[in-house]
Amino acid sequence: MTEQDGWMELDAYCEKYGERANTVHKRVTAGQWQRGVEISTPDGGVSFVNIARAEEWLAKRGKLRL
User: Fold this and answer.
1) Which strands make up the sheet holding 48-50, listed edge to edge?
2) How would residue 33 be classed by pLDDT, with cut points 50, 70 and 90?
3) Longest distance between any two alpha carbons in the chain, whole Å
4) How far is CA 45 from CA 5, 9, 29, 63, in A?
5) How far is Cα 12 from Cα 48, in angstroms, rounded to an integer?
6) Rounded (5°) CA angle 30-28-62
7) In whole angstroms, what is the distance from residue 41 CA to residue 66 CA?
8) Is pLDDT above 70 for 27?
9) What is the pLDDT of residue 5?
10) pLDDT given at position 2
């Protein structure tokens, strides 16, 4: 998965959007973000965030900051 196909590594996402990985993982645990929709962790342990879905989610909550 790469930014070209709409996914960004979690660390890069956190840097770009000013969020912590911890915050993202809490969203998954709380059921706010779904695996395979907003976030994916393929074999190997590196998590990826779907940029379009994450931006949509953030915008709905007034949290989108670029």
Assistant:
1) 7-9, 48-50, 39-40
2) very high
3) 33
4) 19, 11, 16, 27
5) 9
6) 80
7) 24
8) yes
9) 87
10) 57
